[in-house]
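Proteins fold reproducibly. Next comes a concrete instance:

***
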Amino acid sequence: MSLAAFKVLTFDVVGTLIDFEKGVLDAMRALGGDKAVKATDDEIFAVYKRGRDAFYGRSSFAMKDVYLFVANEMGFKNDEATADAFQLSVFRWPAFADSTEALKRLRKNFRLVAMTNADRTALSAYAATLGNPFHDTVTCDETGCAKPNPQFFAFNRGRQSAHGYQMNEILHVAQSQHHDIGVAKELGYTVCWIERRQGQKGFGGTPEPKVLTKPDYHFSTLKQLADAVDTDLRAFHKSATGV
């Protein structure tokens, strides 16, 4: 199926557009003291994921407790002021280098929808970092649940249907096999895997999926998706006009 046939692109945000792994690691090492500086990425992420499971609340306040969970287990600096500073750093997680420009290009041809486990407060910060590209946004605040809960995807499907878009007109774009690709594929979405960790071992700060789902489209960057869209749009225009 040509990418030019879709009308809506739904996006996971944290991990796909926003580089939360860099944000977590940089803040841990800047705030946590010598032990944090010396800890490997894998060591930090192993405990971070358990901490996020233990404190799976809204990201605009739960990340303070996640930090303290990591700090207490790994011997990092663990006072309240440091935990508060880590919580504030969550709102400043950086975009991937290609995200803003690729979204700007994609917005010219598609309705862009954020589908994120971040709450609305955090998403407001990330959307600003990305240049406010979204036509619509769906967060855990609206759905009352988080991905990979199928109800999150059902909520968005109904929301886009209310705007006149059919299921086969939506392409779901995400990095996380666990939170997005597997469940979205099972539910009948066409999916595009942005494999941000391509060439790296393991799954970093994202939970390992039970199985690796084969996506309909597969790229390592968002720029590659935008380039593929441009190619398909040129081919569509040429076939339609002969020029």
